[in-house]
Amino acid sequence: MRSSASWLRRGLPLLVVVLLATLVPVPAQAHPFGAPQTVELRLQDENVVRAHWQVRMKDDLSWLALYLRLIVVPPERISSDGSVVYADGDAEPLETSETFDRYLLDHLTVSSDGGPCTGALVTKEHVADQGAVVDFTCDGPVSTAVVDVSMLTDIHRAYKTMATGPRGQMFAYDADHPSHEWAFDASGAATLGLPDLGASALSQLSAVGGALVVAVSGGVLWLRRRTRKAAAPA
Amino acid sequence: MIPFENPLTSDWFGASGLGDRLVAFIDSPQFPPIAFAVAFVAGAAHAVGPGHGKSLAAAYLAGSDGKIRDAAWLGGSVAIMHTLSVFVLAVAWTFFDLSGLIELKTLTTTLQLVAGVIVIATGVWLIRRHLSGRAQGRPHSHGGVVHTHGGIAHAHGGATHTHGADTHAHGEAAHGHEGHTHGDAPAKHTHPHDHKGQHDHDHDHDHDHDHQHTAPSRPGLALLGMSGGLTPSPSAFLLLVTGLFSGRSGLALALVVVFGLGLASVLFGVGLLAIAGKSVVVRTAQSRTALRLATRVAPAIAAVSITLIGCALTVSAATTLVTAS
Q1: Which of A11, A33, A232 lies nearest to residue B108, judging by beta carbons?
Q2: Residue of chain B whose alpha carbon sits nearest to that of A195
Q3: Terminal CA-to-CA distance of chain A, rounded, Å?
Q4: Per-residue pLDDT at A135
Q5: Which pTM was predicted?
Q6: Is B157 an 8 Å CB contact of chain A?
Q7: What whole-number distance in Å separates Cα of residue A17 and Cα of residue A10?
Q8: Region of poorest pLDDT, from A29-38, A41-50, A55-64, B261-270
């Protein structure tokens, strides 16, 4: 007992230090919330695919402007978790710079029937709030098209782009999956055999949710039964 | 969203790297089972970083007569709340154009504000409970160690200690436990509850003895757990969104659940550490006077600490919201 008590006394300072470390109140704001950028695709004309690109975290524009050397970010605007505090002026150089236009057209491309479609910037005013719109004019009517998106992945590989298209199509672009084929009309949808992602998500999420409810309920019942058994008089 | 690598970056235990790896599993053609292990570790690594209610868990459990099951209850609450929070946000973001209504950073900061208010409410409630307990409590003796029972005294047949005048006893049908412990007494003792023929009772409310020793309340623990899990992890959110967009939402949700369990395991561990730390202090205390003082003061310190942490969370979130607007 004495050795145990002495071990406890020796270990007590360490325990106190660990406890104090856990007691330091730090708000749970150690990281920016990572809402991914989005691209919305639709057929603007029979031979024109319109892409609407938008960031969902404005500090992504700060990083992009910094990456394109359009702004300088002072160290005090970089948080301890590595995120940049967005400032109102960060997006302005992007709205006026041709460097950004080239970047956009290099990292967002469309091809149809094996040939590239020509991209033209429609608008990038208010890029922080409304994003940028690019029209891709193809040689003929577009039924299906391959859209390549590599926006920001050259800045950091972990960037993703969540893309939506006609008929509930969705795709998650990232550094390893920069290319995807989309259907823009009924024949294209039939050609590609589009899955109904909404219905699929509903059934998958319901299955996992149901399994969870069953598992938790089973666990609770088992615990209650065990407690009752232990408490029952002999 | 994703920062550059820079010397100011504090990537706690590689949490963001694990999160990125986790999201990559969803996209890979073959889904490896090891993804679940990575999800658990990523959740734990995320929880090890600043925040997430560890300090609250420690303060609450150390300041009350916390048990292992209370720590498990707290961890479970965090896991459930985190999973629900990620699920609701990811589904709303994907299918209901949530980002068109409100910027997610604003939404999550608002959730942090709500979490802070919940923590303050819990802290204030604990302070009130402590104060009312002190006002109503009657000191009595358990083998030489004086403590109060919040105004409720009870009798144990055959036990060698006495209680206040409003003695009551326990119905056999109401609780069939074999004994209870007084964790904040140095001479921890157990009373066998052989209720047969020893006392007579006419009340049948279901309670245990813990409540008489500033024991943690389940609603209080659940509230703290909820506040800890209310703000979703960016990695878990991105994981589920990616799953929804790539048609693998079931796997993604399962990984989010395991991520939440990893998160909960750290809270559970911190809770155990707090309980063990308090137990060590109690066992090694030399002076009974000091111990008596500590056991009286600890709940008050815990309650005030929780309130202050809640204030810090609330002020921080409110400042961020005001600055952003």
Answers
A1: A33
A2: B247
A3: 33
A4: 96
A5: 0.66
A6: no
A7: 12
A8: A29-38
CB contact under 8 A, B253 and A82: no
**Complex-level ipTM:** 0.73
> Is A69 in a helix, a strand, or coil?
coil
Question: Does the beta-carbon distance from B276 to A9 stay under 8 Å?
Answer: no
Task: Enumerate the residues of chain B whose CB falls inside 8 A of the CB of residue A26.
Answer: 50-51, 55
Task: Tell me the range of A77-86, A116-125, B122-131, B232-241 where mean pLDDT is highest.
Answer: A116-125
Would you call B2 and A156 a contact, using CB atoms and an 8 Å cutoff?
yes
Q: What angle do CA B56, B58, B59 make, to 5 degrees?
A: 65
Asked whether B239 and B23 are in contact (CB, 8 A), the reply is: yes
Task: Report whether B240 contacts B252 (CB < 8 A).
Answer: yes
Mean pLDDT by 10 residues, chain B (325 residues): 39 59 76 84 79 67 72 82 87 78 74 79 76 54 40 38 39 37 40 45 43 58 74 84 88 91 85 75 63 66 76 79 70
B303: nearest Cα among B65, B124, B134, B133: B124
Mark yes or no for CB contact A205/B4 under 8 Å.
Answer: no
Alpha-carbon Rg of chain A, whole angstroms? 27
Residue A91 has pLDDT above 60, yes or no: yes
* A144 HSE (CA, 13 A, CB side): 16
B2 in helix, strand or coil?
coil
Task: Give the residue on A whose Cα is nearest the Cα of B195.
Answer: A233
B115, B227 contact by CB (below 8 A)? yes
Determine the 3-state secondary structure of A65 from DSSP: helix
- Residue A151 DSSP symbol: T
Whether B298 contacts chain A with CB within 8 A: no
The answer to whether the CB of B113 falls within 8 A of the CB of B321 is yes
Amino acid present at B285: A
Q: Is the minimum CB–CB distance between B227 and chain A shorter than 8 Å?
A: no
CA separation for the pair A6, A4 (Å, rounded): 5
- Asked if B314 reaches chain A (Cβ–Cβ under 8 Å), the answer is no
How many CB pairs below 8 Å do chains A and B form together? Answer: 209
Residue A113 corresponds to which tokens in the numbers above?
């029937």
Q: Is B24 on the interface with A (CB under 8 A)?
A: yes
